[in-house]
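Re: that backbone. Tokens:
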């Protein structure tokens, strides 16, 4: 039985809109590996497909062409073997012109794999669209691929024959925490809000990882089975993920490794210093692509005196790999279950929860009742020459003359503030007022698992946001 579509209502609506338009459409769908691009298109296009073809990984051009010819003959037995891509697309044109259905829907999956060295695939593909398909009114061409750098360079930002030819681009994002909850509830996993948060803090909202979870096991048991077991399905996921997304993947991994344990993030200059990569346009492109795929974010420091752009890791799986998986030096197959109450878990969970919050700023704004108010999001730190330093990871600067300073705490029960923590927070606020050059009123906002336990120290908190709020 085919698994039903879940959590992609808006994407499905747009695809159906493109199918029903009165012109030819060229739609490029991209996003990280495992996010559900192929599943979305196959489920939504369904019986309307006139031709569907998938490229092969790591094979020669002759094998790609043979695969294309075999596939085309299933639809069009009269098709002859093609010696090159120009002939192959001419054969496809012959078939489509003789296809009786109304809209001619073509789906080419893993398009980047077809562009092998010296294959001349791209000129033939460009010619197919520019010289024929774009001039029709009934061709609906959908392409997708996980190799994000290739999709951006050769399709979406193409400066050659396909420049401005894509009619629509669709970046498929991972699910939010709320959608993850809906999925696990629908399949009766019985996970608590905290367990759901822990899942997200490890895997993010990637649908494929969700599909691998066994509801008979806890989150920790699933993580051990999938990642730490010698036969785990995700044991080599980090390496496979970046190889599938980016050519020269080692450069991208080096950037993520450099910022993986830096709470505030790093400036461009600091990343260059850490990685020893060359300072050029290619490096800028690497940063842009990592951000486009939601591995990192860039933001400006709140202080007017230091408007340096900082790059910060926001991908949960990359953070988990760098700070937990790589620490399993002895190959413990139950490493995560054994680490549940350890200093390693506490160190990881603090930053991982902050990443979860940074990925759910719209939900935080909604919980604060400020969705309709213009608000910019920053981080802030004291100038480099100020000691002792202070840092605030999430500052929401509102047009109504208020600033929400967000403290993010992952806890197993209601968070209980003590005297030491109150002093730390008050010091941060004082430093912010002294150095951030803002005269707006400050509202201290606590984002935590299950709320705040009221005591003599909790009165400094004006707003409390829980996991339940983030899941809405």
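Recovered sequence:
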């Amino acid at each position: 039985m085919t698994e039903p579509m879940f959590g992609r209502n808006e994407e499905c609506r747009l695809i159906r809109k493109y199918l029903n338009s009165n012109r030819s459409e060229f739609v490029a769908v991209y996003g990280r590996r495992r996010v559900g691009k192929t599943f979305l298109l196959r489920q939504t296009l369904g019986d309307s497909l006139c031709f569907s073809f998938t490229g092969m990984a790591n094979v020669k051009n002759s094998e790609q062409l043979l695969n294309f010819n075999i596939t085309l003959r299933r639809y069009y037995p009269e098709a002859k073997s093609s010696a090159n891509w120009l002939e192959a697309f001419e054969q496809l044109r012959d078939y489509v012109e003789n296809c009786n259905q109304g809209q001619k829907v073509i789906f080419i999956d893993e398009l980047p794999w077809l562009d092998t060295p010296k294959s001349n695939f791209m000129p033939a593909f460009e010619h197919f669209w520019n010289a024929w398909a774009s001039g029709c009114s009934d061709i609906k061409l959908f392409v997708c691929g996980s190799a994000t750098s290739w999709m951006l360079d050769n399709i979406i930002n193409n400066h050659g024959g396909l420049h401005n030819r894509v009619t629509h681009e669709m970046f498929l994002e991972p699910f939010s925490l709320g959608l993850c909850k809906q999925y696990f509830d629908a399949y009766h996993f019985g996970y608590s809000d905290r367990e759901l948060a822990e899942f997200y803090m490890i895997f993010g909202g990637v649908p494929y990882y969700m599909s691998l979870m066994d509801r008979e096991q806890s989150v920790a048991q699933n993580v051990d089975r999938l990642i730490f077991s010698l036969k785990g399905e995700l044991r080599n996921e980090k390496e496979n993920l970046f190889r599938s997304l980016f050519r020269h993947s080692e450069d991208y991994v080096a950037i993520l490794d450099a910022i993986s344990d830096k709470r505030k993030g790093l400036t461009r200059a600091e990343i260059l210093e850490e990685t020893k990569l060359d300072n050029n346009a290619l490096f800028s492109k690497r940063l842009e692509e990592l951000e486009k795929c939601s591995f990192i974010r860039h933001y400006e420091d709140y202080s007017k005196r230091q408007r340096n752009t900082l790059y910060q890791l926001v991908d949960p799986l990359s953070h988990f790999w760098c700070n937990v998986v790589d620490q399993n030096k002895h190959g413990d197959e139950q490493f995560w279950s054994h680490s549940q109450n350890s200093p390693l878990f506490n160190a990881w969970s603090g930053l991982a929860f902050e990443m979860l919050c940074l990925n759910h700023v719209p939900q935080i704004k909604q919980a604060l009742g400020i969705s309709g108010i213009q608000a910019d999001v920053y981080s802030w730190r004291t100038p480099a020459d100020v000691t002792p330093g202070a840092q605030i990871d999430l500052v929401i600067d509102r047009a109504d003359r208020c600033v929400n300073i967000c403290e993010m705490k992952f806890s197993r029960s209601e968070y209980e503030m003590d005297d030491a923590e109150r002093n730390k927070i008050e010091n941060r606020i004082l430093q912010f007022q002294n150095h951030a050059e803002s005269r707006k009123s400050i509202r201290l906002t606590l984002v935590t698992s299950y709320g705040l336990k009221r005591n003599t120290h909790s009165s400094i908190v004006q707003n409390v946001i829980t996991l339940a709020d983030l899941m809405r």
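The first helix runs from residue 9 to 19. The chain has a mean pLDDT of 91.
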